[in-house]
Amino acid sequence: MHHKTAGGPKTAGRVLHSHAGLSLRWYDLFSSVASFGREKLIELAAPAPGEKVLDVGCGTGTLAIAIKPRVGAGEVHGIDASPEMIEVAKKKSAKDRSDIDFQVSLIEALPFSDASFDLVTSSLMLHHLPDGLQAKGLVEIRRVLKPGGRFMAMDFAAQSHSPLGHLLSVFGHSRGERMVDKLTLKLRDAGFSDIESIPTRHKSFAFIRARLPMPKEP
Ligand SMILES: C[S@@+](CC[C@H](N)C(=O)[O-])C[C@H]1O[C@@H](n2cnc3c(N)ncnc32)[C@H](O)[C@@H]1O
């Protein structure tokens, strides 16, 4: 099923819009839950001065804005399928005087060249994608990462496709398939190595970290 993106690109991912009152209420709930993990995600991802970082499904840009001071003269980019989210992200970064490139685009067709990023992050985004699209998105992330580049995600530990399932997850009752196990397999299929899942202090959420192998010495 394709979702309307209110002037944005077509995707099978669930895109959040400001005119969808219910979606934005969910978004607020997710964002407040996500804030507990943001600093930990940055600590685990360890962005370093001079690095080039991409946040996929960046929403209103909070994570990208928090990463920017860590890379100094390096670059931070954020993409989201929702034009409304990107508009808010641009306003927030302008207010913060943060030099970040925010663009409306899709995880399944990233507008960046091969091997151009040191780190790709994703926060509460992958559960918005149906299985096939998740796999496609991970292949795109691999494409834009440099050899040895890192991927760092935070998401629901279990995947539920219903709003009720999400609500139960937020309050600690994991429902649905083990998202972390499925992601581990998909990351392996996409060519990642050193894949590890790291529990958060909230049992419904997990971090998942992976990296691309370095090319073999001749
Ligand atoms: C729950 S929000 C999380 C936003 C932000 N990362 C955070 O932690 O607050 C998920 C985001 O994924 C975006 N999204 C859904 N499908 C997408 C796709 N195919 N490509 C890029 N972004 C997508 C939605 O528009 C939404 O902003």
Please sum up the structure shown:
The protein is of the alpha/beta class and 218 residues long. It has helices at residues 21-45, 62-71, 83-95, 131-144, 163-170, 179-189; strands spanning 52-56, 75-80, 101-104, 117-123, 145-156, 158-159, 177-178, 193-199, 205-211. The strands form two sheets. It has a seven-stranded mixed sheet, with helices on both faces. A two-stranded antiparallel sheet has the order 6-7.
Walk me through the structure:
This protein is α/β, with parallel strands linked by helices and 218 residues long. It has a single domain, classed as Rossmann fold (3-Layer(aba) Sandwich). The chain is 37% helix and 24% strand. The protein has helices spanning 21-45, 62-71, 83-95, 131-144, 163-170, 179-189, and strands at residues 52-56, 75-80, 101-104, 117-123, 145-156, 158-159, 177-178, 193-199, 205-211. The protein has a seven-stranded mixed beta sheet, with helices on both faces. Strands 6-7 form a two-stranded antiparallel ribbon. Helix 2 (62-71) links the parallel strand 1 and strand 2 (75-80). Helix 4 (131-144) crosses helix 6. The model has no long low-confidence stretch (mean pLDDT 84). The structure holds S-adenosylmethionine. The site of S-adenosylmethionine has 26 residues, from helix 1, helix 2 and strand 2.
